[in-house]
Amino acid sequence: MMFYPNDILQQIQKSKGLWDLYTRKEEYSPPQLNRYGLFIYGYSENPNILEPAVSRYLVNNGYEIEYPAHKQFAVCLTHDVDEIYPPHKHTLLSALTCLKGLDFNGLKRQAFWKRHGKEKSPYWNFQDIMNLEEKYGAQSSFYFLATDTDIRRFRYNITDLEDELAFIVDRGWEVGLHGGYYACNDLEEILLEKGQLEHILGRKVTGYRNHYLRFQVPNSWETLEKAGFQYDTTLGYSDMVGFRNGMCHPFWPYNLRNNMEVGILEIPMVIMDVTLFNSTRSYSEAWQMAKALIDTVVSCHGVLTLNWHSNSFGCPFRGSWSRLYEKILQYCDSKNAWMTSGIEICKWWRYNDFKPTR
Ligand SMILES: [Zn+2]
User: Fold this and answer.
1) What is the DSSP string of 208-248?
2) Could you tell me the fold of the domain covering 8-53+72-84+126-351?
């Protein structure tokens, strides 16, 4: 039914440039890191982040992917849950936006929700997000923080969300771990946070993305495999959209230190809301950039992974962010996309055994 080259790794290894890009060789001894310890696109020597050079090479050399129901490509929808309760600055900005638009109901919801209980917070919006996705036959993943410590401030207590988490998984959406700022590469801390989330959820958690996209090649992959995750979706840049290792397909990372594959599937992140809007000057420019990336992924029959923060949907001062999300869903739907969660992509990849052999 499908053709997979037996030896995908060997195919990429034929080209040194592609192999270095694929394995992220330049990140093994980075010239510098930013203040959050991140390797950013600004430090990379990859001249064309918007072209998935490795995936393109594979596809041109016989790498064929099929998706359920003959879909053309896949969109992996994900949401980092950084906030459940708006910080003061957000409340102020949202209230001002509502006032400007004479939206008094909005103003009430943004400024006075506390009177009606925690779950009335404008960022307690998982059902709204799921309803929106359901309209397009899509599902998604929510990655929750399960720690008290953070570089900026206390975020939220995951125990507040026990009923909500149950509701999310009952609808068929995924709950994964948004590893805390200090969890990156700290196996003990990751296990603690994973255990905490699993305890509240009452089931295993298999998907992961680190807060602030903190990630170190190849150590983070090794740590996450040891912690028992099935997949990670941290690998993307915070300062630029695109294809960090030239792949627009999930892949089993390769560790250049011991010349072995790591047993965790990486589903590389392509577009994060903050990054897209920070690197473009207007809604229409953001849309043009997103559309170009979608068309590129379609041409490779790849997986486009989006990260739209859950609070971006309850945030009047970022109204265009949620509008663009829906526009992307509409467009991808019209292009015959399979729009689903990280865990569903992961299951499909494992089931079809896309695992390259040596
Ligand atoms: Zn985060």
Assistant:
1) EEEGGG---TTHHHHHHHHTT-SEE---S-SS--S-TTS-S
2) TIM Barrel (3.20.20)
Nearest to 110, CA basis, from 96, 91, 129: 91
The arithmetic mean of pLDDT across residues 80-98, rounded, is 92
* CA–centroid distance, residue 143 to ligand 1 (Å): 9
User: Which residues are within 5 Å of ligand 1 (an ion), measured at CB?
Assistant: 80, 82, 211
Query: What is the distance in A from the centroid of ligand 1 to the CA of 17?
Result: 32
Which has the minimum average pLDDT: 148-157, 203-212, 249-258, 318-327? Answer: 148-157
Distance 306 CA to ligand 1 centre (A): 14
Give the residue range(s) of CATH 3.20.20.370 domains in the chain: 8-53+72-84+126-351
Strands (E), 2-120: 73-81
Calculate how far, in angstroms, residue 83's C-alpha sits from the geometric centre of ligand 1: 9
What pTM was estimated for this model as a whole? Answer: 0.95
